[in-house]
Amino acid sequence: MQTDVIVLGAGMIGVSAAVHLQQKGKSVVLVDRRGAGEETSYGNTGIIERDALLPVAFPRSIRDLIRYGLNLGTEANYHPSFLLKAAPWLLSLRAHTDTAGMKAYAAAIDPLSSRAVEEHRQMAAAAGAEHFVRRDGWLRLYRSEAAFRDAEGLLLQLARQYNVDYRILSSGEIGEMEPHLKTSSFFKAIHWTGTDTVSWPEGVVKAYVDLFLRRGGQFYAGDAKSLTQVEGGWQVTAGGGPVTAKDVVVALGPWSLDVLSPLGYKFPLASKRGYHMHFGAVGNATLSRPICDVEKGFCLTPMQKGIRLTTGVEIADRDAPATPRQLEQLKPIARDIFPLAEERDETPWLGRRPALPDSLPIIGAAGRHRGLWLDFGHGHLGFTQGPISGRLIAEMIAGEPTTIDVSPYRADRFN
Ligand SMILES: Cc1cc2nc3c(=O)[nH]c(=O)nc-3n(C[C@H](O)[C@H](O)[C@H](O)COP(=O)(O)OP(=O)(O)OC[C@H]3O[C@@H](n4cnc5c(N)ncnc54)[C@H](O)[C@@H]3O)c2cc1C
Exposed site from 145, 290, 293, 351, fewest CB < 10 Å? Predict the structure, then answer.
């Protein structure tokens, strides 16, 4: 079969790229070994983060370094056997997250973050997925005055600089918004009012892929590792036969190097692993929007299946067996602030945030192969940035001017 573009990977990133390419008049074949939105894009916190202005930083204070070093915190976990392998990546993250690096990151990410909510709203409207979307923001909760003052420094300064809407809530005001939270645990909260959130991330991706199919797109089962360069383009085995196209987009999230390494590309892509578990709520307790406990490093989000507890980062090999230590530590902490009832998953879900050390994605031409395009490495923000990334990659493939300057996301920044 011949098509204009093959998109490898049907997570939020690949599906969004497929929808936008189709809008440019391209015939598109989307390929995945699973259904749409069943990997990383399935299990996240569901926040479409207008407020994404700071990367998750490498710890700098001596206190934090010791806590992390001894694996004492709930915010992060690591596999000691993997640390040596991860060291160059962690050192690069450290170099990118000093104050100057954080400000540079904000300047580079804001063009994506400031468009993300509207891009999702448009795609959700076209896909009939608006019922998944809540428009009332999320809460960042601070237990101590010191942690809040930290945030007041750089984060809120950047929020004002980039016109990101927020309100500061007192403990009492948090309680008015979320009456079943134990608000006495919290000093203050930031309510990010311009951020949307969703009640079922997988449902959103599946609705977007249905839009693509309704408009004539094709979605086949196949192994992206069958990709080969052929005369005039690229070929992959999918849907039981060869599919050939002039252009191919690699949107395989944490698996992107499985295809790119054999082609000679070396990108510093790591998997920042994370877990989730759903819970019922005791009695008539409800949560209206995602809340994140900043110091303890977890979030609770009302999802279709129940209240989803998502963890922070685990530094480990992508394919190492699950070690949901953080989740176990966090369960009693979460139960202390919200009346969680029964566990609704047999085992914790494990996901892998596809992360580059400057915390920015790669969106653009691979560079050394004609017709090879990259759209991966969205880290903590891939659910947020899917539709805007899809727009940009489609504009580039169509040879059009891009909506924003894409130079911060170029692949060759790592070469
Ligand atoms: C705990 C947690 C919380 C998060 N919270 C948020 C949040 O609130 N907001 C936000 O914006 N982001 C969040 N993220 C990050 C976000 O989920 C990811 O950045 C995003 O889902 C990445 O999307 P993707 O399409 O690149 O990858 P994926 O969704 O993983 O898609 C990659 C696809 O490639 C396919 N694939 C892999 N290998 C092959 C192969 N060989 N052949 C064929 N197909 C293959 C997979 O089956 C998969 O469908 C969170 C992540 C985690 C883990």
Answer: 145
pLDDT digits (tens, 9 = 90+) for 263-293: 999 999 999 999 999 999 999 999 999 999 9
What is the per-residue pLDDT for 230?
97
Closest among 105, 98, 19, 64 to 358, alpha carbons compared: 105
How far is C-alpha 6 from the chain's CA centre? 22
Gap from CA of 39 to ligand 1 centroid (Å)? 5
Ligand 1 centroid distance, CA of 12 (Å): 7
Cα(100) to centroid(ligand 1), Å: 29
Residue 337's closest CA among 297, 300, 380? 300
**Whose CA is closest to 188, among 172, 204, 201?**
172
Indicate the SS3 state at residue 364.
strand
Residues with CB under 6 A from ligand 1: 9-14, 31-34, 38-41, 43-47, 49, 223-225, 251-255, 258, 274, 276, 310, 351, 353-354, 376, 378-384
| 45 CA distance to ligand 1 middle (Å) | 12
In the chain, % of residues over pLDDT 90: 91
Mean pLDDT of the chain: 95
Angle at 273 between CA 309 and CA 317, to 5 degrees: 150
135-168: per-residue pLDDT in tens?
Answer: 999 999 999 999 999 888 899 999 999 999 999 9
> Residues 330, 74: contact at Cβ < 8 Å?
yes
Output the CA 65–ligand 1 centroid distance in Å: 29
Adjacent-strand bridge partners of 347: none
pLDDT tier at 83, thresholds 50, 70, 90:
confident
Ligand 1 mutation target, pool 40, 47, 208, most atoms within 8 A of CB: 40
Q: Which domains occur in the chain, in start order? A: 2-41+202-268+358-414 (3.50.50.60), 56-99+132-197+271-351 (3.30.9.10)
Q: Which residues contact 335 (CB under 8 A, 6 or more apart)?
A: none
